[in-house]
Amino acid sequence: MKPDISLELARRLNEQVQTAWADSSMLEAVTSVTADLLRYWFTEPYVDERPCNFHEGQRQSILNIIYLHEVLHVQTVLDVYEQVAPDLLPEADLGTLAQEKYSFPKYAVKMATGTGKTWVMHALMLWQFLNARREETPSGRYTRHFLVVAPGLIVYDRLLDAYCGRLRPGTAERDVQTNDFHRNAELFLPPAYREEAFSFIETNTADKDNIGRKVTGDGLIALTNWHIFLAEKEEEEEDVVTSLFPVRPGTSAGNVLDTLDRRFLRGDVVDYLAALPELMVINDEAHHIHEHKKAGEIVEVEWQKGLSHIARSKQGRFLQLDFSATPYDTVGTMAKSAKLYFPHIVSDFDLSTAMRQGLVKTLLLDKRQELTELEHLDFRAVRDERGQVMELSDGQRLMLRAGLEKLRLLEEGFLRIDASKHPKMLVMCEDTLVTTYVEQFLRGEGLAEEEVLRIDSNRKGVLGEAEWQRVRERLFNVDRYATPRVIVSVLMLREGFDVNNICVIVPLRSSQAPILLEQTVGRGLRLMWREPQYREEKEENRRLVLVKRQQPKSYLDMLSIIEHPAFEQFYKDLMAEGLAAEDTGEAGSTNATGDLMRVGLKPDYEEYDFFWPTVVRDAEEEITPAQIDVRTLAPFTAFTLDYLREHLATKGETFLSEAVMTETRFGKYEVKADLFSARSYNDYLQKLLRTVTTRMDRVGKRGRQPMPAIQINQADIVRLLDLYIRTRLFGRTFDPFQDNDWKILLSKNGLVTQHIVKEMSVAIHRMQENVECSEAVVEKTWFSSVPTLCVRENYSMELQKVIYERLGYPSHGGGLEKAFMEFLDRDACVERFQKISESQHAFASLYYVRQTDGLLASYHPDFLVCTATHIYVVETKADDRVRDPNVRCKQQAAAAWCAKINTLPPADRLEREWAYILLPESDFYLQSANGATLEDMARLNRVTLAATPDRLL
Fold it and tell me: Is the dihedral of CA 410, 412, 418, 423 positive or negative?
């Protein structure tokens, strides 16, 4: 079999799926639930309104598997080859593909370490579960039973975090609200499915000690490590006593009650899983499941044997997903070794692509001057004739010192721009006998005891439960604290160690096994500098390293590997693939942080300071829905009520509502035509209420979260919704309980529901903006409350009329902002101005109603500019963006906000009138070239309520 034939299969599948996605044939072929999910995950407007989305590799993996399963309906791995690339079959090993373990749907995903394969696992689990819940007749293609298998304690512990939530500080209890699904609900789940999915995950997840014991509702998510598949050793000949008497509990090894219980339950767990009607298995770090040779014979590992046993009884109702960055076996030895990839790889997102897209750190090979003469040094520990370690070799000491030098350089540089960033060094040792000597050496180099974390495991990389509990808290929190600075390990941390701050790796191991080398590098690939203000600097560094093959200007999200002579071929391969650059260590060649710098407030900043006014209501006061006149809400006119009755309000059949709308959906109503009740209608009104009184706010640096838009009398707003539906929605009286008219509200495409949400959201937004400000309290947030900014020296400038020492602008496409700031600093009528940083001035935001879905969202204007008489809120825009529908919505909201601010007492608005300016790029350059001042531009480009469309949507 050609070693990499499955990678070619994955490439062919990518092309086929991309075509099917582009022409919409894939969406037409999948179930309605799957279509809902795919649109929500991968199409506009959803992806545009979310700050966090699946990247290219995650997206392709999800699409490929769903395409194979739902469009091509593959039953075996051989089916995949026959339907996707039959011309590859002559090069394939048909004997391998005919094996039992490939006789059911089985898909392997190859994704580079640090690129988020866990999110793909979550998405595919939700796809299976939600489809299984909605099948009228079970097909066996979908399931509500899942087994997620980890290779060891670290990955298993991460799975517990992902499904059960993180541990509460200082306790053994987990907070389910911190699991991956709650934390990333906006990405994973359309609102209609959230409550259902949350409930399923919370009530049906069982850890390895409770599989088969925990009473679950209508499904199972079993989390375990591969040890449940370990078979008992063949029983030796029993002596007379053992054959006559049963095993009795005692204190000797193997006879304590817990051990006997586990021994019994281990077999019981596998049998329990085998007895389930259907099952999807997700193997994390699935390279552990490969075959191996024993005495010249190919032997299945126990992990795969257990899965084959479980699958055997399912009669096709079994699905297996294997995830790994290294899904291959190594055949041959040393220089003649080669990679034999798993035959069922259906998606390949390699390290090269991930690195070029900035999804992982960029690799640097540290070839410092003192490491150039390597052939004279020994890089293995010094041992006596019995193989016992006596001391570290000179080569190992040299590598450790080089690593420490690099670590200190990073610590000093990172501290200057962000004191919360703590770079770490990882030392991978030959074996546990060496780790003690490494720790002693590091202590001798000046590191304190708490600055070194040593993690000992046996030669197979297995850590005992007691040792694991001792180190787990320190290990998983290394990103947050300055200590430990150095982590010393053997094999334990080769996978599942998902921290972000590993910046230096010292590989003292001499093993040349490719899979171990790749796993070692993988420990440091996860990004450390994720904040938007660092994006431009990192993009420039990637171009220098990966395109121009030059040294970077900074070490932000650069992973330094100290050169080891045994890895020479591995390094050459990385360089040849464009995955790494050399860092020669020449003085002044690279700064730890490049041209990034922290700038503070100027000595005279108070002269140029602003505050941002936020109108807050008194805590005990509520906005009354009585301010909304139902007669001002527009009726639904896309179709007449008679037309809707004819096509939607039909009799007799079971109706499955799939009302889907952006951001909020309305759950599944599985009711007979004569079973719609007052309770059903009240549930519908309650979901409408939650939708129209929620806005999407940016929270911290990660993304947006639903926030209460206003404090409001909920009973009154529900009555208002009911009144609108019954008297105004269709321009005449409408009774949802008459015949089957309720179906019109719950129609599959959600047209009527979308209209209700848009009308009511706009009304509530207007009501909020029109509150008499004399009754309000104003919260003033000064821009100087953010005392420092992070800018790039080469893309920032010193200005007079601002509070900061420098203001930055984008390195790409930032010409308009730069020119506008220079113009403001020269204009005599401008007293002061402030460029608003979305990531660093989060408080300076306005709220608008989105054109796409009618929901409330926030945005940040570009500038505040002060003259003798006005405060101008300025939005600069490229000409092609001025007429964008959402820009129009922001324009209307900003004009209304300024009008509201102008009703405040003068002291609460800096004694000036506030106005909004939308300044197109061509207008700015033309007017400034003709000598216009800012006041002139304001007269020509000012946006007023009278100048904007009458409606928000």
Answer: positive
Contacts of 650 (CB under 8 A, 6+ apart): 673, 740, 743
Distances, alpha carbon 260 to alpha carbons 608, 866, 895, in Å: 75, 78, 73
The angle at the Cα of 90, spanning 85 to 96, to the nearest 5 degrees, equals 90
The span from the CA of 861 to the CA of 836, in Å, is 7
Residue type, 242: T
In whole angstroms, what is the distance from residue 32 CA to residue 237 CA? 60
User: Distance between CA atoms of 827 and 933, rounded to whole angstroms?
Assistant: 6
Structure tokens at 214: 């925990």
**Tell me, what's the pLDDT at 486?**
94
The position carrying tokens 């979901």 is: 687
| Phi/psi at 561 (5° precision) | -115, 120
H or E element, residue 11: helix 5-22
List of long-range contacts for 634-643, beta carbons under 8 Å, 24+ apart: 634/759, 635/728, 635/729, 635/730, 635/731, 636/729, 636/730, 636/751, 636/752, 636/755, 636/756, 637/731, 638/751, 638/755, 639/751, 640/730, 641/730, 641/731, 641/732, 641/734, 641/744
Nearest by Cα to 111 from 340, 291, 327 = 327
**Sole residue written with tokens 């099952």:** 279
CA dist., res. 517 & res. 318, Å (int): 34
Which has more pLDDT, 446 or 661? Answer: 446
Q: For 662-714, what is each residue's pLDDT tens digit? A: 233 333 333 333 334 555 677 677 777 777 766 444 433 334 444 444 445 66
Type of residue at 578: G
Backbone angles phi, psi at 571, to 5 degrees: -65, -45
Outline where DSSP puts E strands in 25-171.
106-111, 145-150, 166-167
| β-bridge partners, 347 | 109
pTM of the model: 0.69
pLDDT in tens, 741-775: 877 887 655 678 878 887 887 777 666 655 554 45
Let me know: does 598 contact 413? Beta carbons within 8 Å: no
Pairing of strands 789-792, 596-599: antiparallel
